[in-house]
Amino acid sequence: MKKIIIVILLIYAGTMVQAQNDTVLPNNYLRNSIKWNLTPFLVWSLKDINISYERVLSPYKSFSVNAGYFELPSTSIYDSLHIAATRKKWGFTVSGDYRFYAKKRNKNFAPDGLFWGAYSSFHYTTFENDILVFKTDGAQGNINLHAQLAIVSAGVELGYQFVFDKHLSVDIVFAAPALSVYAGDLKLTGDLDVDENDEYVKAIRDMLLSFFPFLGNMSSDGIVSVSGTKLSLGMGARYLVQIGYRF
User: Fold this and answer.
1) What 3-state class would DSSP assign to 80?
2) Which helix (H) or strand (E) holds 22?
3) Is the pTM of this model over 0.90?
4) Contact 241/170 with Cβ under 8 angstroms?
5) Fewer CB within 10 A of the terminal residue: the chain, N end or C end?
6) Each residue of 18-70: pLDDT tens digit?
């Protein structure tokens, strides 16, 4: 009987140690990660630098915060419109998420492996452009476009983080639907008559939507107006690729 009790105690002790190993991180564990978000840099502008910090809270949970500079690139608008000068252009973005790493799926502790989480983000950008207009009847003129755009989003995300040689990581979020609130303040002035139904106003709207596809639901509500502010509620999305260093 004593031997049986000793064996049971040893099995129980081993089980407790294993459970403890699953819930407690080693003292020397690399809990912190600094990352560079490549997505806005490659998609929007080379000036868009976004840095992220992730902190591991437990073997399968973490949180991260992101912040950086954000602006739209300059571009031409169709063949009849051309941005002649950019007077000012700047913006910023801030976001954060709370992650749950898949315990049964992942072989290692966070931040390595498949994860899902909840996130929120805020984007703001403002710019002012002089647009040179060539009309089909041969007339030429100038339009000044001043715009401010803000997006507040909250949603859930699904992603995978690869950890190489303990210190290097590649963090990918490939699915992240969200509920978003969009606000836009756009004003058009110039020496050509413009209105909300003007083809050039529509072209400017299409240009903005090409940079912000998630503003598409606002187009039907008149995101671009001669002067005014528009507020809309709709669906948004998030996707990103980050490279990081753990310490």
Assistant:
1) coil
2) helix 2-23
3) no
4) yes
5) N
6) 444 456 899 999 999 999 999 888 887 788 899 999 999 999 999 999 999 98
- DSSP 8-state class, residue 74: P
Token pair of 186 as six digits: 């756009």
Q: Which fold has domain 27-246?
A: Porin (2.40.160)
226 by Cβ neighbours in 10 Å (0-12 / 13-18 / 19+) ranks as middle
Determine how many CB atoms are found less than 10 A away from the CB of residue 23. Answer: 9
The residue type found at 145 is L
Report how far Cα 157 is from the mean position of its chain's Cα atoms. Answer: 11
d(CA 199, CA 23): 61
CB count in 10 Å sphere of residue 168: 13
Q: What angle do CA 26, 35, 180 make, to 5 degrees?
A: 110
Under a CB-based contact definition with an 8 Å cutoff, are residues 153 and 120 in contact?
yes
pLDDT digits (tens, 9 = 90+) for 203-235: 666 665 555 554 555 444 433 443 445 566 666
